[in-house]
Amino acid sequence: MPYTDLDWKAINTIRVLAVDATSAANSGHPGAPMGLAPAAHVVFQKFMTFNPKNPKFLNRDRFVLSNGHGCMLHYALLHLYGYDLSIDDLKHFRQVGSKTPGHPEAHDTPGIEVTTGPLGQGVSNAVGIAIAQAQAGATFNKPGFDLLNSHTYVFVGDGCLQEGVASEAASLAGHLQLGNLIVIYDDNHITIDGDTNVSFTEDVLARFEAYGWHTQWVKDGNEGLDDLEKAIEVAKSVKNKPSIIKLTTIIGYGSLQQGTHGVHGSPLKPDDAKQVKERFGFDPSKFFDVSPEVYGLYKETADRGAAAEAEWNALFEKYKGSFATEASEILRRYEKRLPEGWQNNLPVYSSTDGAVASRKLSETVLAKVINTLPELLGGSADLTGSNLTIWKGAVDFQPPDSKIGDYTGRYIRYGVREHGMGAIMNGISAYGLHIPYAGTFLNFVSYAAGAVRLSALSQHQVIWVATHDSIGLGEDGPTHQPIETVAHLRAIPNLQLWRPADGNECSAAYYVALTSHHTPSVLCLSRQNLPQLENSTIEHAMKGGYVVHEDSEAAVTIVSTGSEVGICVDAIKTLAAEGIKARVASLPCWEVFDSQSQDYKLSVLPDGVPILSVEVYSTLGWEKYSHEQFGLNRFGASGPYKDIYKKFEFTPEGIAKRAKATIDFWKDVKPIRSPLKRAFTQLI
Amino acid sequence: MPYTDLDWKAINTIRVLAVDATSAANSGHPGAPMGLAPAAHVVFQKFMTFNPKNPKFLNRDRFVLSNGHGCMLHYALLHLYGYDLSIDDLKHFRQVGSKTPGHPEAHDTPGIEVTTGPLGQGVSNAVGIAIAQAQAGATFNKPGFDLLNSHTYVFVGDGCLQEGVASEAASLAGHLQLGNLIVIYDDNHITIDGDTNVSFTEDVLARFEAYGWHTQWVKDGNEGLDDLEKAIEVAKSVKNKPSIIKLTTIIGYGSLQQGTHGVHGSPLKPDDAKQVKERFGFDPSKFFDVSPEVYGLYKETADRGAAAEAEWNALFEKYKGSFATEASEILRRYEKRLPEGWQNNLPVYSSTDGAVASRKLSETVLAKVINTLPELLGGSADLTGSNLTIWKGAVDFQPPDSKIGDYTGRYIRYGVREHGMGAIMNGISAYGLHIPYAGTFLNFVSYAAGAVRLSALSQHQVIWVATHDSIGLGEDGPTHQPIETVAHLRAIPNLQLWRPADGNECSAAYYVALTSHHTPSVLCLSRQNLPQLENSTIEHAMKGGYVVHEDSEAAVTIVSTGSEVGICVDAIKTLAAEGIKARVASLPCWEVFDSQSQDYKLSVLPDGVPILSVEVYSTLGWEKYSHEQFGLNRFGASGPYKDIYKKFEFTPEGIAKRAKATIDFWKDVKPIRSPLKRAFTQLI
Ligand SMILES: [Ca+2]
Ligand SMILES: [Ca+2]
């Protein structure tokens, strides 16, 4: 169907809404919405299947605005199509408490698939969505039942394509031949510093071709609706490659400042806004004005989307008849219910069991639960043999013609691409049928910091298997030994950092991580062997903290995590030889411990005696749970790990020495209050 | 000159030393040294100019082993060429206290240019070295005096090239046409997970061509010494593009496991080590055995390097005669001396001056010192107008034919490439004549975490101008508002995080950052205006912490940083209205404050009254300086910043309320000790 005046009116309505919303907020980015409105109209009107009344319809096409600063484009569309986003919401763009924050947040706004704005994340999330779709489709589709076959459409700007995270994800997407991914690159020659020729002169399409993508160039993104439509059709027809369409546009199209960075990040001046409206045939005295025809045009598409969902539901009913098991699996996973009794597979240890590295304990957990939990989609950033993230019989997630796996595979070879891996996992989580986990060294989770904080902000259930978690990795040395990493991750809200000390704690960490559907987890795991603790049980450790060794006559409490807990237990004997009694507590997860009752917490870290913390990282933050801190506020060293532990005095003797200093130092303070007692509570 | 048997003996000596050292350590990576020994021999013997007796010779060619795990390759070369690295040092490979740690650390080992191992960093550092070389050459070279004309040679593996940081740096290097950069890509088809076809099937050379690089492929990296030599000659002849040479090699060449990942990351088995030696004509009963001829061969090259330096010194003497000012500038910068009296340019404020955003204060500092400190090489990750990192009259560092700058330019348009920017700054610092600084939003310093920790570990003087430092950025919302970032950076050893509260604090931050030649700094700067404080002076703030408002009858000390200090000062009045007296301290830099005398620190945060900290970030770590903490242990919000501050109660009333709760809560503890008093000191 040819494009009509009404199509253009709709397009210009999007532009004018972006002008009005940024003007009302006196803040925001009108340029991208004005330049991309035609492309968005084509994608949403001609290609996307979606139901505004059910934004979570499983087989919907996904749309990701990777250049999230242009979010008024997406908000305008969501409103016009009838999502639960009113014109009032648009009027409250960028205001406290609105559903229209300055960058799109998936957990806030219906119809937003992933949280974008931090550049490079959205397009990398989209690779994850495409992976999840391909994996689910290959798993659940059956002859006659092309049940899961959606596409993911992405808008991406120059900024996103300069980011390394996007390069990593794009390279992997090409390798994986993700034909369900279509990226439209807003080639407007402008970034914040001005013309892209100041820093970005590479040949983007040639680069993506090198990655194995299908590439096209549509030279007129301002008027050439037909050209773009044709290009997307071609892109859809290419089934074994992701597609990128370079769309040359003018940023801020219609503004007096169009084509300059002046229109990128601030509202138009009032007279410019006025002339934009006049130019596009709108009444400049009206604001947030949408004609009924435009609502009508978009409602038709919304209705078609609702009908498509109804049709899909009918197909799903038939599928249930023929493939009852698969259908109930889809529903179970969609509703984030774990299979009944799955947790009975978690390994349980007794204190007489041998010492095992916690990365190895993690491998055992995965081996035990992997078949029961088909939603687990694993992987590693090229450290499979070190992270121990794979299991016996695992099939690689690979393009079928690679002959080394297929799309039903549940193990992803991410390559040495930690940041891309993190962003891809967020996308996998966003698709809705998987729980992604993946491995790297703890120190290199930092490479993915940008994605990790978005996991937490967007409430993605993503699990990092972060091995080689300290100076205990030994010879690889300071470049690989985390010092600040754990403080960093503990400071991220809504992130559960676990550092299990033994087998039961490791099982507990997985239990909580797998049942926390709106929280990412990082499991810090040792390279070296750790003994099984006396009082450790899954139930104890699930609380995030518990008493490993109790003594009602203790003069000091020693609190620790992971590989140091066992050494603290040994320090008790050293102290006992000098007639000093001590308690030991293990605190494998602060975030979870914090959520326990104050009574419980005080039973672990009580009043009355001073508390010493012991952990081979920066001490930053440990003051929250202890009166004195023994840690490592410097970089580590290269050598056999036992030598390094000795060098830094993380030995029973070194701990005992500091425990005695702690007792002595606190003897004349009355009362000694647990640091858990606070004058006021924090706002949440 | 054709390659002789002695050349091959030398090459095989490198291989065998790598085998012996990894066997002795029972740890390490023999594969890369064995595969790359021929290439290293060609580069060091035929191309590099260097003087082992003076590893810091300014115009030396630089060598960067980006795949740092292969460091035995480099250690072996350094030893054989006569650097201060003995055969005993090789025998102590990967041992505590040795000069041969598991990954090369520039500050530990003579001849190591940059610390590598974390993948992607080295090659990105090399882009920085190349930038610094081009900038210094354009600045100081004169007709007849091609004084600074060195090349940077890089070895890089598959892993490095998969990392986004390397993609960012490579794209910028192509844009900048860095003809002095030659990268040799070890195409051995192996990463830790096995064959590269599991995750890395892109066309690397096509990608680099898209970036604007000159590309070549040498198909026989095992025997084809002449081919590689020719390719490097061609690469050197290409003056307006960086070069990458894909060198196809066999990892672990000579081992029974050659060509597999089995030889990547662990020592050879004893019988394999034995057959390697036999195969290469060595006595398998000997270890760390180097023939005098091999030492002799390499000594000739070392002697040529020493002669080249002598020749350069003579040229420099002549240069001094003709260009005395330039010559003394080179010396001054090489010796890291700042020009006398430079600090007199730092702006000074009085408390009656108007309120100014600290990003704007930073702009003023830069404007005042930029001409006095030509070693400053600035830039921004495409946020120049927001970070305010540029100055009037700045020339862009751009390739001359771009017509938008030239190589004398001192302002780098990094593009939206934060991680690349961080790694490039490390390289600029490593070259030795510049102090790099660059801007981005504080939240996106996290994207560069991998490079930032290496700045600290390698003791690079690098300055981050990190604006939009909190919820005070307002409407951009939670995706852009740092919460955990400052805790992360404060936990990094040898990093100075500054959060100035006003103009004098901002000047102090720059003063300390510019005079700390072995420490990176991050300056956290506000988007919103901040009042000038009563008791703030550069001298006070230089101590990292001081008293802003003293009161000998205070019932509470309030300690804060940056934009919250002014609000705390206002809270005094709110408290006074209720008859409560309070002190206020500002703590703009913890790392610097920690280095003051205990007496001084206790004068700021004394015993006797409880201390409340106030900062709009995660409270993590503030327990170190305070009894109670008011912070933001959740993500922020999108809206005008004043609304957000109000929402989270960072107002005089909100602070006063918590100050009263603090006083009340601590009234029955005796004595109230300053948290600065500790039972024992940390090991450093
Ligand atoms: Ca753009
Ligand atoms: Ca390789």
From TrEMBL, chains A, B:
Which Gene3D superfamilies does the record associate with it?
3.40.50.920, 3.40.50.970
Protein name according to UniProt: Transketolase
Q: Which residues bind thiamine diphosphate?
A: H69, G117, P118, L119, G159, N188, H264, F444
On cofactor binding, the record's note says: Binds 1 Mg(2+) ion per subunit. Can also utilize other divalent metal cations, such as Ca(2+), Mn(2+) and Co(2+).
- UniProtKB keywords: Calcium, Magnesium, Metal-binding, Thiamine pyrophosphate, Transferase
Q: Which cofactors?
A: Mg(2+); Ca(2+); Mn(2+); Co(2+)
**UniProt source species:** Dactylellina haptotyla (strain CBS 200.50)
Amino acids binding substrate: H29, H264, R359, S386, H468, D476, H480, R527
| Pfam families to which the protein is assigned, alphabetical | Transket_pyr, Transketolase_C_1, Transketolase_N
> What are the EC numbers?
2.2.1.1
